[in-house]
Amino acid sequence: MTREQGVAQTYLEHLQQEIRLQSALVGDTRPITQMHWGGGTPTYLDHAQITELMHMLASHFNLLDKGYREYSIEIDPRTVELNTIALRPERIACYNYAHLPERFTSQRAIDRLTLSTPE
Fold first, then answer.
1. pLDDT above 90 (res 115)
2. Are 94 and 57 a contacting pair, CB within 8 Å?
3. Residue 12 DSSP SS3
4. CA torsion sign, 15 to 47 to 38 to 112?
5. pLDDT at 8 > cutoff 70
6. Within 10 A of 66 (CB to CB), how many other CB atoms are there?
7. What is the pLDDT of residue 12?
8. R_g of the chain, CA atoms, integer Å
9. What is the pLDDT of residue 3?
10. Which of 91, 112, 116, 90 has its CA nearest to residue 102?
């Protein structure tokens, strides 16, 4: 993704169109028991945009609000604020950072010597 101004909102507008299309295909009554957000989007969007996206999803799909459900989100821990821990997740999974600058050009700016060790 990019940090260019306004791109996130354009992305959300396109995503809303895709959500409408997918909802028309699968219907809005089938319960959604699993949902995973990842790939950088959750860290890229601000809190208001994440809320907007959740409202989009909830208005087009049957997101369960109780009972069995497994909703997960990948986030960069450097972007977490105190009010984000107030969400009270049921579990937290922490994975090692994969430093692959030859594969991800944005990682080339990170000095590998400044990274923490797995220990």
1. no
2. no
3. helix
4. positive
5. yes
6. 5
7. 93
8. 17
9. 61
10. 112
Residue with tokens 């809303």: 16
Return the axis-axis angle of helices 47-60 and 7-26, rounded to nearest 10°. 20
> pTM for the whole thing?
0.73
28 secondary structure, DSSP code: S
- For residue 70, the cross-strand partners are 34
Q: Tell me what pLDDT residue 91 has.
A: 77
Q: What DSSP designation does 90 have?
A: S
Task: Give the integer Cα–Cα distance in Å for 19 and 102.
Answer: 34
Please name the residues in contact with 112: beta carbons below 8 A apart, sequence gap of 6 or more.
99, 101
* CA dihedral of residues 62, 63, 67, 70 (deg, nearest 10): 130
Structure tokens at 101: 């600058």
Q: Locate tokens 């984000």: which residue? A: 84
Kindly list the distances between the CA atom of residue 27 and the CA atoms of 31, 42, 52, 87, in Å, as whole numbers in the listed order: 10, 25, 21, 29
DSSP string, 29-85: -SEE-EEEE-TTHHHHS-HHHHHHHHHHHHHHSEE-SSSS-EEEE---GGG--HHHH
